Amino acid sequence: IFLPEINDGEGHPSSSHQTLKGTSKWATSLENLLEDPEGVKRFREFLKKEFSEENVLFWLACEEFKKTQGKKQMQEKAKEIYMTFLSSKASSQVNVEGQSRLSETILETPHPLMFQKLQDQIFNLMKYDSYSRFLKSDIFLNHKKSEEQEENSPEAQTAAKRASRIYNT
């Protein structure tokens, strides 16, 4: 018997992990968490409490920077990233190796991957440090609980299940 391949909306073979949503998906990898706007919001909330929100903000700024077109825009964005996260006077300074050797001269010839090494460092810092704590945090666990309650809400259940729940209280 020939079974057609099941594809997602974009023609990629669908796999089970694509059906995961919300906290289940966030828990599979930091990459999945960072792809979900709600996940980013919750992770930022957590990092703010840990006084390390600048890490995810820097990572997001670098992702945005890679999409920047035009030398002038790249120079402006690169300078913004440098001044916000990397300069010694930065308001939200991230802690990356080789930072002391960074100077504004790199901003004169910007290219999409100019921050890649630093972004990777921050990603690994988050992945092996704050991400695992995030998965144990109240912010994550409460969000997970509210998701589970929504899934088990009366609208999501059959009348029979509802009836048995009402009579078994």
From TrEMBL:
SUPFAM superfamilies: Regulator of G-protein signaling, RGS. The keyword GTP-binding does not apply. Transmembrane segments: none annotated. PROSITE patterns: RGS (PS50132). Residues 1-22, 145-169 are annotated as: Disordered. It comes from the Eukaryota. One of its GO terms (cellular component) is cytoplasm. Residues 29-140 form the RGS domain. Signal peptide: none annotated. This is RGS10 protein.
